[in-house]
Amino acid sequence: MGANFDVKILIIFLLVAILVLLVGLTVNVLKDHKSSFKFYKTIMNEKDKKEPPKKDSKE
What we know:
By secondary structure, this protein is mostly helical. The chain contains 2 helices and no strands. It has helices at residues 2-31, 33-50. Keywords: Membrane, Transmembrane, Transmembrane helix.
């Protein structure tokens, strides 16, 4: 029974941690909507820079 109890505590702790993270992220997005959007844009720009540009016209 002891091992079972430990597993339940671990699962509950993980669920609570995930909930806290989600709530924190949501509050941050609502509070700093513009800066979060800017951060998302920079991430997308970094992805675009890493991918080599496709050339349609062959010279």
